[in-house]
Specification:
Radius of gyration: 21 Å
Helix content: under 10%
Number of helices: 3
Distance between the termini: 30 Å
CATH topology: Porin
Number of domains: 1
Order of helices and strands: HEEEEEEHHEEEEEEEEEEE
Oligomer: single chain
């Protein structure tokens, strides 16, 4: 190692270690990999190994006085299946510093998921797997790219009132590190969240100023545990641009607990576009075995049925194996995976 880099590292360690010693901090991560057979319905039909939003990070907090807790988090995506170069900043995922207290809420600054993105969670039983809801809800290039993690953001969350919380986020520059005069890359995101035991939901809105189509979207999610074993969820999203292009995504999802450790997940979602022959329907079903809250195994099957000019797949989001789709074809994925949280 270069001596200058070694000296810099030692100095940094000397500054960081005493701070960590006085804080409650945790090293954590997720190893999530799957073995997949992916078929685009045309010429591509191959076996793949995929790393699915695997990550490594550390976070901590310290109470300085009553109702004043300082917190931080630094998180990096880790692709276990390749040796591809990653962002060496060690901060490609949610990374922030902030303050919180039960009586006044939470305030943080940095880079993190928007309230709009987080709102879909209750309806996405295939998160980071084939069949992920984002394969329809995030992929509409004509009406903007939602479900984002914006740079240069400030976020405030209210205290909980009767199961309700309100999130507000503003980003003055979603891409670069520096704001330029007249730069349009701003974003506003907000969500009203409800959590009342068996019932939960969210109503979210996001506006992006990109200097081109300035997309915005509204999203509504409702989830209810009908019985201790059966949970159902409904999802609706409408997105549009200043040019008038518009799309809806909607559908139902369910999770049935067959045994205390075994779950059956399924969903169906529809993309209705105002563009000609650009609709798509996604189906997914899978079994998930949880040996422990931190260790699970699963087998999933997911398909996307495309109209003539649509080329979506059920595997394009949150995964390292992302071959493209074929217009007008039905893309199918079979996946067997393991997720270990530590």
């Amino acid at each position: 190692m270069n001596r200058k880099h070694l000296l810099t590292s030692l100095i940094a360690a000397g500054l960081v270690v005493p701070a960590l010693a006085t804080a409650d901090w945790t090293l954590y991560g997720r190893a999530h990999l799957s073995a997949d057979i992916l078929d685009d319905g045309a010429e591509y039909n191959e076996f793949n190994v995929s790393s699915n939003s695997s990550r490594l990070g550390f976070k901590g907090e310290r109470e300085f006085r009553e109702q004043l807790i300082a917190m931080f988090q630094i998180e990096q995506q880790i692709d276990f299946d390749t040796a591809a170069d990653n962002d060496l900043s060690f901060a490609t995922r949610d990374t922030f510093v902030g303050l919180k207290g039960d009586q006044w809420g939470m305030l943080r600054i940095g880079k993190f998921d928007t309230p709009f993105k987080r709102a879909r969670g209750e309806a996405n039983f295939f998160g980071d797997r084939v069949g992920d809801l984002r394969n329809l809800a995030r992929s509409r290039a004509q009406t903007g790219r939602f479900d984002q993690r914006f740079n240069n953001s400030i976020h405030y969350r209210t205290p909980e009132f009767g199961g309700l919380t309100w999130d507000l986020q503003y980003s003055n520059e979603t891409g670069d590190a520096t704001t330029e005069d007249g730069a349009p890359n701003k974003a506003y995101s907000t969500a009203l969240n409800l959590n009342m035991g068996d019932f939960s939901g969210a109503l979210a809105y996001e506006k992006q100023e990109d200097g081109a189509v300035d997309p915005d979207a509204v999203r509504a999610v409702l989830a209810y545990s009908i019985t201790p074993a059966l949970r159902m969820a409904a999802f609706y999203q409408n997105s549009e641009t200043t040019s008038g292009d518009e799309a809806d995504v909607y559908g139902l999802a369910g999770q049935f607990r067959l045994t205390p450790s075994l779950r059956l997940n399924s969903h169906v979602f529809q993309l209705d576009s105002d563009l000609d022959d650009a609709d798509a329907t996604m189906y997914a079903i899978g079994l998930e075995y949880r040996l422990d809250s931190d260790l699970r195994f699963y087998g999933d099957i997911a398909t996307v049925d495309n109209d003539a000019v649509s080329s979506l797949t059920p595997w394009g989001q949150a995964r390292s194996a992302t071959p493209g789709g074929a217009a007008g074809e039905t893309a199918t994925a079979f996946s067997v995976g393991m997720r270990y949280d530590f």
